[in-house]
Design a protein that fits this description.
- The complex is a heterodimer of chains A (125) and B (362).
- The termini of chain A are far apart.
- Chain A has 125 residues and is an alpha+beta fold.
- Chain A is built from four helices and five strands.
- Chain A is elongated.
- With 362 residues, chain B is of the alpha+beta class.
- Chain B has one domain (43-334): Cytochrome-c3 Hydrogenase, chain B (Orthogonal Bundle).
- Chain B has twelve helices and eight strands.
- Chain B has a three-stranded antiparallel sheet with strand order 1-2-3. Chain B has a three-stranded antiparallel sheet with strand order 6-7-8. Chain B has a two-stranded antiparallel sheet with strand order 4-5.
- Chain B is globular.
- Classes of the chains: A alpha+beta (125), B alpha+beta (362).
- The interface between A and B is medium-sized, with 23 and 29 residues.
Chain lengths: 125, 362
């Protein structure tokens, strides 16, 4: 008896919109706040190193002298701890897909020195 | 009587999503003894507590198991909060329980799908996982993750759910409830499923108590225990909570208990959404657990009671973190249920216990 009921449900699904999407031709819209890879908007970064201390996977490296902010995307577990800890809100999580890779790499960003920028503007002016 | 033979079962086996090895001692198609062996996926996660501070370890705790991820982060956070004397805001407690009950629904639907697949009931498997997908979509919308949620922190939760989203959760669950009722009635009235489960792998009430079994496995043998009845957190605000029990103690009873628990979880979420208070979702937690301080906690995971123990040493890192997971409690019961069964029934008995080997080995 139960199988007939399930049969009815399965038959009914022939006339409904499919539950699945034709990926990659079609993708579902990403909901707001979806987690993804960590991106640093370096213009706002002050190289305080709080993200490095909070990272449970030791994925982030901050070298203040070299003005370098780096993340190993293969160690990152996308927990969002760094994003929440950042005092300048310069870290964001980008849910967009990244290119497929066959090699491991480290994403390195040089943080511009605000003093140097100001001096350059003064020199130009 | 034929000669006894040992038949190895697992660690790779179609009914097992995770590696568990059993040496089945078989005589004339009857299992007369069973020796379980685990240790294939031990990762030493409890030891890692010495290397990660108590805030970071929450992300390790939720990676103990993909299905029970929300439960482990919640259990760990509650234990550390008890250790440090932190009081969590009421709204955070409600949100935690809403997510935890959603994860119970997704875990039971996953199990139901796997059980249907093992019966050879492919269409039922598809329907179960179709419904589970809706719960995962709710997770995605409310937490940003589908399986590993990273939404609990020591002192509260990291994200709020607004009123519109809470109404959407209830609407999705109401839609799911109607379709779920059809699936359950199919499963529980199907003659071939009854033939394979009724009277198979019976565990009596006394045996269940003697073997310290927990969760739906024990409740199918009328053991009236569910950690949620202790009323911790938002569970204390529920108007009524009665564990779902069955008296038969066989595979069919275990299926019935799990099927009813999904409906119970839906009712809990609806009640909490109606009652959820406004206010903060987290408090600031400063300092470290005191040297020698210790705390313990129990939490009802989808598979049963999970016990957490933590000890502080005055630093940011805990001295010791221990978890006793439901499957490690239920392995003794599983061996007892397997003794005396037919070799062909081993699959069903193991499935209805719903072993989670990642949790057991950590």
């Amino acid at each position: 008896m139960g199988s007939f009921r399930l049969g009815g449900m399965t038959f009914g699904s022939l006339f409904k919109k499919p539950e699945t999407v034709l990926y990659p031709l079609e993708t579902k819209p990403a909901p707001a706040g979806l987690k993804g890879h960590v991106v640093n908007e370096v213009e706002l970064c002050i190289l305080c190193g709080i993200c490095q201390k909070g990272c449970p996977a030791d994925a982030i490296t901050v070298e203040k002298k070299e003005r370098l902010w780096a993340i190993d995307p293969f160690r990152c577990v996308q927990c969002g701890a760094c994003v929440r800890a950042c005092p300048k809100d310069c870290l964001i999580m980008d849910a967009a897909s990244t290119a497929i890779t066959v090699e491991k790499y480290r994403t390195e960003r040089t943080v511009p020195d605000p003093k140097a920028v100001t001096e350059a503007v003064v020199a130009e002016g | 009587m034929g000669k006894a033979t040992v038949i190895p079962f697992g660690p790779q086996h179609p009914v097992l999503p995770e590696p568990l090895h059993l040496d089945l001692v078989v005589q004339d198609e009857t299992v007369i003894d069973c020796l379980p062996q685990i240790g294939f996926i031990h990762r030493g996660l409890e030891k890692l507590v010495e290397k990660r501070d108590y805030n970071q370890f929450i992300y390790v705790a939720e990676r103990i198991c993909g299905i029970c991820a929300m439960g482990h982060s919640l259990g760990y956070a509650e234990t550390v909060e008890e250790l440090m004397g932190v009081e969590v805001p009421k709204r955070a407690e409600y949100l935690r329980v809403i997510w935890h009950e959603l994860s119970r629904i997704h875990s039971h639907l996953l199990w139901l799908g796997l059980a249907a697949d093992a019966f050879g009931f492919e269409s039922l498997f598809m329907h179960c996982w179709r419904l589970r997908e809706r719960v995962l979509d709710l997770f995605e919308k409310t937490t940003g993750g589908r399986v590993i949620l990273s939404v609990v922190k020591v002192g509260g939760v990291v994200r709020d759910i607004d009123g519109a989203m809470l109404r959407e959760i209830v609407a999705v669950l109401e839609g799911l409830e109607a379709e779920y009722a059809t699936i359950v009635s199919t499963l529980l009235t199907d003659a071939s499923i009854k033939n394979r489960t009724v009277g198979v792998g019976v565990i009596s009430h006394e045996e269940a108590l003697d073997l310290s079994m927990v969760g739906p496995f024990a409740r199918a043998s009328a053991v009236n225990y569910d950690c949620r009845m202790l009323g911790r957190g938002a569970y204390g605000d529920l108007s009524d909570f009665q564990p779902i029990l069955d008296t038969q103690g066989d595979c069919y009873a275990r299926i019935k208990v799990r099927c009813s628990e999904v409906l119970q979880s839906i009712a809990i979420i609806k009640e909490l959404v109606a009652k959820i208070p406004t206010g903060d979702i987290a408090v600031d937690v400063k300092g470290s657990p005191a040297d020698g301080s210790q705390a313990s906690n129990v939490l009802e995971q989808p598979r049963g009671e999970c016990y957490y123990y933590a000890r502080g040493n005055g630093s940011k890192n805990l001295e010791r973190m221990r978890m006793r997971t439901p499957t490690s409690q239920n392995l003794a019961g599983m061996v007892a249920a397997l003794k005396g069964c037919d070799l062909a029934d081993v699959n069903m008995i193991i499935l209805t216990i719903d072993p989670c080997v990642s949790c057991t080995e950590r």
